[in-house]
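Morning, I've got a small favour to ask if you have a moment. I've been staring at a protein lately and its backbone has me curious. You're getting the sequence in one-letter code plus the fold written as tokens. I've dropped the whole record in just underneath, so have a look:
=====
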Amino acid sequence: MDQTDQNLLSRRQFNARCAAFGLTLPALAATAAEAAERSVRLPDGPKVPAVGQGAWHLGQARHPAAVEEEALNAGIALGMSLIDTSGNYGNGRSEQFLAHVIAGQRDKIFLVSKVESDEVAEDGIAKACDASLGRLGTDHLDLYLLHSPVPSSEFAHVVAEFEKLRKARKIRLWGVSNFDTGQMEDLFRVPGGRGCATNQVAYSLNNRRIEPGVLAWCTKNKMPVMAYSPLGGDNNLVVSNPTLTQIGSAHGCSAAAVALAWVIRSGTVIAIPESGSPAHAKENAAALSLTLSPQELQALEGAFPAPTGPT
């Protein structure tokens, strides 16, 4: 059993943690088997929770730092131990903030960060990684992503640099972000390119553009997708939708939990919502134990139709 498998909660642990945070929602009264099912196995890597936590705006005075730290810790306690950040989030302030959160519990966290496309030349990836490790106060990242595509001609260099970091044990796994299907095909053609662990892309009920292309390709190639903005993004949140609210009421949980349960429904997608408050973190965690019925999935399909035509 690997470290991340050990972090999956037993029934007693799960219920105790729910009680500790004052949670009485029926959707959180999960069995150990139900909780374990809400994980995703990364290629040649560990299992990670199907719902993690994003940190794009954290540590940048959007909320009091103590409240944001409490929110992350509430999420970690409820099983959302994957935390996603980047060196360019707030010019490093997100990583610096997370250093305080992960201190003393690094072994519980699956930590993800990113390198920018304008940093890949020569030894830029190694320098960016060292800078992130310094800000985070850790000696390794569990997953390191290329934040946005570079020209396909540079893929071999990127892969080689990621593999150097992996062999030096500064990263455990590497992946990409915002790649389309053509770029994924090009990546797989370069030496070592099939070592890519995930493609992080936008995906939510109101943004289903990846389904016929990227999502289908990743599913075929047994590569999980990591979904950012799984609730629709800052200015386009889905949580006020009446269908989501109705389904949430039936399960005793929030519309956000329903939306996240939809995103992770296949067992091959990892959602990374961001939360600046403990209450929202608890709502998000409910998705880890929520299974939507075929009728509920059909209702959501009607409320948020899949895209048609080329994407």
